Amino acid sequence: MIIDCHGHYTTAPPALEAWRKAQIAAIGDPSKAPSRASLSMSDDEIRASLEGAQLKMQRDRGTDVTIFSPRASAMAHHIGDASTSLEWTRLCNDLIRRVCTLYPDNFIGVCQLPQSPGVRPENCIPELERCINELGFIGCNLNPDPSGGYWKEPPLTDRWWYPLYEKMVELDVPAMVHVSSSCNPCFHATGAHYINADTTAFMQFMTSDLFKDFPTLKFIIPHGGGAVPYHWGRYKGIAQDMKRPPLSELLLRNVYFDTCVYHRPGIELLLKVVPADNILFASEMVGAVKGIDPDTGHHYDDTRRYVEPIDWISDADRAKIFEGNARRVFSRFGTRTPREVNASARGG
Amino acid sequence: MIIDCHGHYTTAPPALEAWRKAQIAAIGDPSKAPSRASLSMSDDEIRASLEGAQLKMQRDRGTDVTIFSPRASAMAHHIGDASTSLEWTRLCNDLIRRVCTLYPDNFIGVCQLPQSPGVRPENCIPELERCINELGFIGCNLNPDPSGGYWKEPPLTDRWWYPLYEKMVELDVPAMVHVSSSCNPCFHATGAHYINADTTAFMQFMTSDLFKDFPTLKFIIPHGGGAVPYHWGRYKGIAQDMKRPPLSELLLRNVYFDTCVYHRPGIELLLKVVPADNILFASEMVGAVKGIDPDTGHHYDDTRRYVEPIDWISDADRAKIFEGNARRVFSRFGTRTPREVNASARGG
C-alpha cells in the first residue's frame, strides 16, 4: 500500500469559498454570519470535485490512500477572532469527514485546528477531541504562526503550547506543522512562508528539551523538512557547537519529514541524509505546484516517480517510506485498513 | 586562485564589542555615546585576531583571498535609530579597511550598510559611496529585514529600495542579501532566520520584474541559497504556474548562490541543479558552525573539501566556481589582484 500522508482538499466545491466570503464579510456584524448548516453541498458535488482531481491522480499514480485535511492556505487563522476560526474550522473538518465517508478506502482525515492569534492553544482541544473521537481522524495540522507571517506566537517549544501537546499525546495523534497563507508582503505563501516555517520549526525543536517533556509527541515537518536536509551538516554542526545531543537522539524519535520535494535531486538528497525511519511519502497533490515539468513530462508533484526508482535504498526502507512509517507515526492508523479507520468514527 | 566570497570579521578584538556595548548603553542619552575615534585597537591586536583564525584557515585550506565584511549577526540594524546604525556601520567598515590594509593579499572589503527599520534605503548611499570610492571595497551586504525577524520592510523588489539599487548599478557593485541577528524568539539566527531570509529573497525576486528595471543589478544569496536548490523543482514549477519566464531567464542573470552548505550531499545537490555560472565558492568560515565533523575529521565549514572532489563537473566549471564567477560578479575585482584592488583605495 502507498500512503500519501499530505493532501489538502484544495478542490472543494465553490460553495465552501462562498460561505467563507460571507463569513468574512460578516466580521464585525455577527448577526449576518452564515450558519454552518447553511452550507449547501450535495454528495455529488463533493464526488465531482474529487473524481477528476485527487482520485484521478491516486489512480494514475498508483497511490492508495491520502491522509487528507482542509486546504492549508485557507485556514487563515489570522482572519477574525477565535469564534470566526472555530466556525470555519468545524465546517472544514466536517467536510473532510464527508469526503472520508464517501471514499472510505481513499481518504483518512486529519483536522484543521481553530487557532487564533494570541489565543491560548487549549482552545483547540475540544475540536481536536471531536475530530479524533467522533470523526475518526488520525492527526491534526498545527500552525506555528497563526498571525500569518508576522510570527507573534511563542515558539512551538514554549509551554504556551503544552496543554495541546498533552491532549495530542493522550489521543495518540501527531501534528503536521503547517502554516497557512501569508499576509506579510515579504513572504510568498507556498514559495517562502511554507518552507520557512518548516525550517523554523525544526530549529525550534533542536534548541529545546520539548521531547524530554513529551517523549511520545510526534511532528511531521512537511515540504521535505523545508531547508533542513539540504543544510543537514549545518544543523548537525550547530547542535554540536551548542553541546546538544546528536540529532538522532535529540529529535529523530519525534520529528519526521514528508517527501513533498518536487524534483529527483531533492528527493535523493532527502533519502541520503535523513534516516529512512523518519521519512513519510507524500505529494501534497493538487497543491502548491500543479504544472507538468516539461523536462520529465510528469507533474512536478508526482513524487512517487522520484522515490520509486532510487535503487540504493533497500526494499525494506522503501516500504517504510511508502507505508510503514505513516502507519507508525499516525498510530491510530496502525495496522487497520483505511475503511476500518473511517468506520471507527461514531456514526461513520 | 581560490576566492572565498563570504567571510565576516567574527573574531575582531574585544574592544569592538565593548565599544558597541557603550554605544547601546548610551541610546537615549547621546551625550554618553562613545566617539568612533575612541575605539582603541592596535594593528598587532588586529593581526592577532586573524592570524590564528581566518588567516590560519586560508593557509590550512588552501584558499587565497576572502571577500570580507563586518560580522553579520552584529549589524543588528534594529538597535537604536539611523544615527546609531550609521556610527556603528562606519566603525565596522573602517575596521574592515584596516584588515585589508594589513593583509592586502588576503582580504578584500565588502561593507555593512547603515540600515535602520523604516528608514528609506537612500540613507545608505553616502556610506556605500565612501566604502566603494574611498576604502576600495567591492560590494555590500544588504539586510532585507532590518527589524530583526519581524519583516516589516517592503520586499526587496519594492520601489522603496530602488534609489539604493540605482547607486549599486552606478558603482557596479553586487549585494549579498544577508540578515543580521533575530530578536524574534521564533527564529534562531543562524539556524532559521538566515536560511529563511535567503529563501524569502529568492521568492521575492522570482515574483517581480525587478531585473527588467535593473538588468545589471546583482545579488548573491548566501548559505547555498537557503532552501532554494533543494526545492528547485518547486520554484521551477511555481514560476511556470505563474506564467513567469523560466528561472534562467527570470533571474539567473542577476542572482547567484554561494557554497556555504556544510556537508557533501548538499553541495552535490547545489552543483547538480544550479548552473555553474551562478555559484560562487564561499565558506563563511569562523561563522555559524565552528566545529569539526566527527564523521570527516574536518571543519563543517571547510567547504573546499566538498566542492573539490566532485568529479562530474568540468575543470572549467570548477574554475568558475572557485574564482571566475567571483571576479565577474564582484566586477570591480575583475582581473586585478587583491593587492591591486586594495591599493585602489584613496590613501590605501
Largest sheet of chain A: 5 strands, parallel
Q: Which class of chain A in CATH terms?
A: Alpha Beta
CATH structural fold name of chain A: TIM Barrel
SS content category of chain A? alpha/beta
Q: Beta fraction of the residues of chain A?
A: 5-15%
Give the secondary structure arrangement, pairings included:
Two copies of one chain form a homodimer.
Chain A: E1 3-9, H1 14-25, H2 43-51, H3 54-61, E2 65-70, H4 82-102, E3 107-109, H5 125-134, E4 140-142, H6 162-171, E5 175-177, H7 189-206, H8 210-213, E6 219-221, H9 232-241, H10 247-250, E7 255-258, H11 264-273, E8 279-280, E9 292-293, E10 298-299, H12 304-307, H13 315-329, H14 338-343
Parallel strand pairs in A: 1-2, 2-3, 4-5, 5-6, 6-7, 7-8
Antiparallel strand pairs in A: 9-10
Helix pairs in contact in A: 5-6
Structure description:
2 copies of one chain form a homodimer. Chain A has 14 helices and 10 strands. With 348 residues, chain A is α/β, with parallel strands linked by helices. The first copy, chain A, has a single domain (3-343), classed as Alpha-Beta Barrel (TIM Barrel). In chain A, the strands form 3 sheets. Chain A has a 5-stranded parallel β-sheet with strand order 4-5-6-7-8. In chain A, strands 1-2-3 form a 3-stranded parallel β-sheet. The longest helix of chain A is centred in the N-terminal third of the chain and has 21 residues, at 82-102. Chains A and B meet through helix 7, helix 9 and helix 11 of A and helix 7, helix 9 and helix 11 of B.
